[in-house]
Amino acid sequence: MHKLVKPLTDTHVSTAKPFEGKVQILADGLSMYLEITAAGTRIWRMSYRQENEKQNRLTFRTYSAFIN
After folding, report:
1. Helix, strand, or coil here: 10?
2. Is the keyword Iron in the record (predicted)?
3. Is the separation of the CB atoms in 59 and 45 below 8 Å?
């Protein structure tokens, strides 16, 4: 069973800073998350598992593309 996660707010996402040289992941519920790269780029992604148990990841858009 999945954990209940509070949805990300605009304030939380825009004020989040990347870790020192590492990727930061902010969960938005189920398998959707926001990935913040070391350069500060914010990317919406979703991870899923195929029937053959292979783990995959979809990339949707950058966060700035949604607000502009």
Report:
1. helix
2. no
3. yes
pTM of the prediction? 0.74
CATH number of 48's domain: 3.30.160.390
Cα–Cα distance for residue pair 44/22, rounded to 1 Å: 17
Residue 23 lies in a domain: yes
Q: Whole domain around residue 58: which residue ranges?
A: 10-67
Q: How many CA atoms lie within 13 A of 49 on its CB side?
A: 4
Question: pLDDT tens digits, residue range 45-65?
Answer: 999 999 999 999 999 888 776
Residue 5 lies in a domain: no
| CA gap 68, 65 in Å, rounded | 6
CA torsion through residues 37, 13, 43, 66, sign: negative
